[in-house]
Amino acid sequence: MSNLTYLFVAFAFIWAGVLAYLIRLSGLRKQLEERIDRLQDRLEKKALHND
Amino acid sequence: MKRNVDTILPVLVLLAMIAALAGALLIAPTEKAMGDVQRIFYFHLGSAAAAFVAFTCVFIASIGFIVRRETVWDNLASAAAEVGVLFTTFVLISGPLWARPIWGKWWVWDPRLTTTLMLWFLYTGYLVLRQTIPGYRGAMAAAVFAILAYVDVPVVYFSVRWWRGIHPQVLSGGGGGLDPRMIPPLLVSVAAFLLLSGVLIRERFNLANAADCVDRITVELEDMES
Fold it and tell me: Is A50 on the interface with B (CB under 8 A)?
């Protein structure tokens, strides 16, 4: 492999790793947001029930 | 609006990454003495710029936390510290990859290299501190530590001027001898890294805020049930 190809592959791997980290963070945040929605529903129902 | 930004930002990052790769590897001219290995420089300097901006963000957010005592500032500081450590790691990996063929050694205890390694240890220490001591006390201790640790950022930047070392002075004056044709790809690369670090900090910050929100609602529910 030429130097340029080697560099291209190395850079692409690192960029791909960072993108994967970004997608993972985004996925985790979406999961938490869904959990917040569910918990808020439960909270509202509980509040209504207690009233 | 927020959903649009969530969709647009990763696409922008991807396009910026492709532009940075093309600029560094295909458009930038080959350096006469060093050859293709010099192209690591576009990645190295972009990572360093992103790390500096992230640590500046940690510094500002830590002051914000000490002044306002609100968790969002602590969340912002720890998000930026994590991203800063990630980019400093890239700097510490890409530097030796360039140094081995050029200097004949993976590592030398040059002032720039040594202070950068110190920077990595300081902010890794910050993250460990933040994880070890939970709650308000931990956040306050981490904020004070982050403000003190930030002193190393200008030291890293000016180290090539203050002390004699072998690290090239490209941007700090002293005639780095950068070919003018290398400047546009360099700027694209720095912009791509800054955009990437901004998006990563934003995601990490939103994640920490969402986790706080889950904890708050859970406590409220437990209070209601008991």
Answer: yes
The whole model's pTM is what?
Answer: 0.89
Q: What are phi and psi of B4, to 5 degrees?
A: -65, -45
Contacts of A42 in chain B (CB under 8 A): 221
CA–CA dist B225, A35 (Å, integer): 19
Which of A28-37, B13-22, B118-127 ranks highest by mean pLDDT?
Answer: B118-127
Q: B24 contacts in A (CB within 8 Å)?
A: 11
Helices and strands (H, E) in chain B, number of each type: 7, 0
In chain B, residues with a C-beta closer than 8 Å to the C-beta of A12 are 21
Distance CA B1, CA B126 (A): 34
Phi-psi map region of B108: left, alpha, beta (phi>0 left; psi -120 to 50 alpha): beta
Residue A45 has pLDDT above 90, yes or no: no
Partner-chain contact B10 A26, CB within 8 Å: yes
Q: Give the CATH number of domain B2-168+186-225.
A: 1.20.120
Task: Tell me if chain B has a CB within 8 Å of the CB of A7.
Answer: yes
Q: Do A25 and B213 touch (CB under 8 A)?
A: no
* Non-local CB neighbours of A17 within 8 Å, separated by 6+ positions: none
Res A1: pLDDT: 52
Per-residue pLDDT of B103-160, as tens digits, reads 989 999 999 999 999 999 999 999 999 999 988 999 999 999 999 999 999 999 999 8
